[in-house]
Design goal:
The chain has helices spanning 2-22, 28-35, 39-67, 69-86, 94-105, 108-123, 127-156, 158-179, 193-200, 205-232, 238-266, 268-285, 292-307, 309-319, 328-356, 358-377. The chain is globular, with a radius of gyration of 19 Å. By secondary structure, the chain is an all-alpha fold. The protein is built from 16 helices and no strands. The protein has a single domain, classed as Up-down Bundle (Growth Hormone, Chain: A).
Length: 381
Amino acid sequence: MKKWTVLISFWLLIFSYGANWFSVAPLLKDLEKEYGIGGAESHLLLSIIGLFVIFFAWPAGNVVDKKGPRLSVMIGSLFMIAGFVGRIWLNGNYFQLLFVTSIGGMGLAWILVALAPQMIQWFEEKSSLAIGLTSSGLFIGFGTASFLSPYINQNYGMNAVYEFFALLAVLSFLIYLGFGKDKGVIIKEKAKFSEGIKSIFSSRNAIIYPFIGFFIVGGTLSASALLPKLLEESGLGEIEGGNIISLMLFGSALGAFAFPYVAYKYGVKKTVLTVAIFSILFWLTFYLEFSFAIYLFIAFLFGIFLQASWPVALHCQETEEGVNERNEGVAASLYISISNVGGATLPVIVGKLADVSLKIAFIAILGYMLSILLLWSIVKK
C-alpha cells in the first residue's frame, strides 16, 4: 500500500507541474498582443523550461545516485513553487514573466530524473507500469490547464490563471512532503561519471533512446503551441483551441499510461513502430477541415500515439544493458536532458516558421514525427 501512496503523491506533484507549465499554452496569442511579441518569443515561454532541464538534469542525476530520488524531487519542487508562485507578481512585462518561468523551469529536471529511479525502487519488476502511470500526471496536467486556462482568463483575467495554478503547486508539494518517500535508507556506491557514461554507452540503443525523447518532447510542445493558430484558420476561437489542445494532452496522458504495459505484453518494437505511424497519420488529418467535434476526436487520438513511446523509451533506457543502481541517475539524466533539448529548441523553430507560414511550420512538425519513426526502426530489440 505504501508504494501506491508514494506513486500518488509523485503523480500529484508532476500533475501540478504540468498544469503550471501549460497554463499559458492556449493563451499565447493573448500574451503576444499584451506584450507586443512574436511567435518565437511566446513559444519560448513553453520551451524555456526544456532549456533549463538540459543544465539541471546532470546534477539531479548525481543527487539521485548519491542521496536518492526524494531529495532530487524536493529540490525541484522548491524551484517549481518559487517560479510559478512568482508569476502572480512578476508579470508586468514579457521579460519578468520569462524570468520567473525560467526559475520554475529549473525544477523540472530534478523531478523528472527522479521519476524512474523512485518507481523502480518501489515497484521493481512492475516498474514499467508505475513509470507510465506517474508520467501520465504530467500530460493530464498539460490537458487540464489547457482546458481551464481560457475559461479562467476570460472570466477573471490572466492573473487569476497564475494564482489558481500556483495554489495547486503549493498543495501538491505539501502532499509529497508528507507521503513521498524513498524505499529504505539510500546507501550505495556511486559510479564515477565517466565510468557510468561508458557503461551506459556499451549499448547502441542507449544512444538512440534520448534522441527519440528529443523529438517526442519537442514535437509535443510544438504541436500544442501551433494547433490553436492552425485551427484559427478554420474559424475556431480561443476556447475551442484550448479544448482541442486539452484533448490532445489528455490523449498523451492515456498513451503515456497505457503503452508501457502494451509494449511489455506485445513487444517494444512492434508497439512503438505502430504508434509512430499512427501519430503521423493523425497529424496529417489536422490539415483538413472538419467540425469542432471531429477535431476533438482527432486531437485525442493524436495525443495518444504521439506520446505513447516516451515512457517506453525512458524505461528501456533505465533497464538497458550497462545501466544499474550505480548509474541509473546518470542514465535518466542523459535521457531527460537530451529530450528537453528538443523541448527547448524545436518549438522555437516552429514558432519562427509559423511567423512566415503555418504550412511550413506544420511540415516541420511532420518531420519531427518521421524522425521518431526512423529512430525506433533502428533500435535493436
